[in-house]
# Entry
Amino acid sequence: MDRRRAITAFSYLVALGVIPPAVAQHGKVRRIGVLRPGPDDAVWRQNFARFRQAMNELGFEEGNNLTIDYRVQPGKAEEILAIANELVRAKVDAILAIAPAGVSAAAKATTSIPIVAIDMESDPIARGYAVSLARPGRNVTGLFLDVPDMGGKSIQLLKEAVPKLTRAAVLWDPAIGPYLFKGVEVAASSLRVRVIGLEAETPEHLAAAFQSAAKQRAQALLVLTSPVLYSARREIAALAIDHSLPAVMSFPGFADDGGLMAYGPNLLSMFKQNAAFMAKVLQGARPGEIHIERPTLFEFILNLKTARALGLTIPQSLLLRADRVIE
# Structure
């Protein structure tokens, strides 16, 4: 086959989608920065492996036409901002920013480099990252969670597990800001449940928070999303059992680690979704024109061992809706 015919055939296969567009860029290497203000733990590595796999399927293979500059470490806001500035100085083609601190730092560091976000705690419009979900208009796109809606569903789950529920403690991290707590407070009021706010900015604040819940006669516990609270999920689950509090958190690992229930987005699915955003950006799409999405796959997990420890009989309606039941 002569060179002209070979090029024509190659272009035809790209148009059909047989050859991914990224491969058609004749070896052009793209560089992305990963900004995650959290520990390099097993859960993170599993989730990010799904992102890399999805990127590979979309034609971007690390070590071939993709370079990834990792910045995965906890830190204070000013330290995360310094790391974001490092990525900007490195002239990455795009930044994958994870969690509120990561997205906030990336957005402060650059208004030109595309930012693809996985943020479970922020309102992108209220935070100024986007003009609208349909047309963000700036350099940030990605996945954001509808926290008030999910918080309302979590309170509803608690109310089904504890039918006489009228007072629910809500454990939240003030470093994230009041948006999450206020959203849940509104959702709970519509269900005639009074919210008892418990602040915990570090794991050292947990014991006092649970003591406050006991003094205020809380009947159940909702744990809001936060990197700090997620890292302390085992301690929170144990304290909830010690204080006879049926508890729910948005991360599946909470139920695996002894919490009564977990309801929230499937993290592996979220990272796969974000790979699609990143691929679009690397192929030249403007983030300001890419529709911001919410997670598409949610999980509900029940821990019956914890239910027995709490003396709870879980209604059949909840058992039937659970995606997974831990015996």
The radius of gyration is 22 Å. Residues 6-19, 22-26 have pLDDT under 50 and may be disordered. The first helix runs from residue 3 to 16. The first strand starts at residue 30 and ends at 36.
